[in-house]
Amino acid sequence: MARILSIQSHVVSGYVGNRAATFPLQLLGHEVDVINTVQFSNHTGYNAVRGDRFSASHVLDLFDGLQTNGLDAYTHLLTGYMGNSDNVRAVECIAQKLKHKFPQLTFVVDPVLGDDGALYVPRELIALYRDVLCPLATLVTPNQFEAELLTNTKITSLDTAKSACDELHRIGVPNVVITSAVLDSASGDHTLHLIGSELCLESGAKHQFAIAFPRLSGYYTGTGDLFAALLLAHYATLAPQFAALGALARACELATATLAGIMQATKLHQESTLVNVASNLPRGSRPNTMVRGFELRIIPSRHLISNPTPSFQSFSI
Fold first, then answer.
1. Where does residue 310 fall: left (phi above 0), alpha (psi -120 to 50 degrees), or beta otherwise?
2. How many Å apart are CA 100 and CA 162, to the nearest integer?
3. Which residues contact 273 (CB under 8 A, 6 or more apart)?
4. Could you report the per-residue pLDDT of 72-125, keeping only the tens digit for each?
5. Which is the catalytic residue, given 33, 64, 166, 225?
6. Is this structure's pTM higher than 0.85?
7. Which terminal CB of the chain, N or C, has fewer other CB atoms within 10 Å?
8. Burial degree of 85 (CB within 10 A; 0-12, 13-18, 19+)
9. Would you call 225 a catalytic residue per the annotation?
10. What 3-state class would DSSP assign to 41?
């Protein structure tokens, strides 16, 4: 059982950030404590959002309280949405303190920068993630756009995806998962690829792999947060069982199976609402009734979390 500190966003209603991560991690048998970088009424896909963004001093003060009371015996650290450079620096401080106390700490960084060509955060965070958090990380989980920003590599094929992974290895990250990428191929944009790469820092041995899975139409939010949590949960369980490389690929198969199932359940639920889904609607212009229909069906899909059946197999690249 892992003991996890998760530092990311929080919403009162819906499933993104810590709301998407906590329940799956607990259901898979791990202890989870959370620090929220924001607390919003709902995610930003709705027409209005209320709430506060928390300062780095708030994040550090909460962690100081944990330290003071001896409640900081964490084996794993998971980070998601930071929002500003001060919070990235706060996470750097927390990661260093946890590593000092427990050198074997597994640090999973979901570098939430943006998606589909659009940045969600100030551009200065790109260099901070690359130069500050990535060298401390055990595993990073960027999407295609984020991986391109972090490595200055245009990802159009499995080969260029492997090059991006190699650049993140060069920075110091032993495990890389590019969670979803649209590659130039005959299948067009109807198929997504996950690309993973695990590197043994001692021997230099490396295992690179990919998983192909169908792309579902719709406006899903929180899928990256959910995937990072699922991947951490399975990797924490599997890594001690593998004497050599291979745990990351298996963990990705399990996490992808659950995520694909939850997204399919979400799509069916949204269709049952009979709310029309128009294409290419920017954030802030989507009807709230439609957005609500696309909230991830995590609780009704708990059987997919606890008992995933891998339907998409990894293959070496």
1. beta
2. 32
3. 289, 292, 293
4. 999 999 999 999 999 999 999 999 999 999 999 999 999 999 998 889 899 999
5. 225
6. yes
7. N
8. middle
9. yes
10. coil
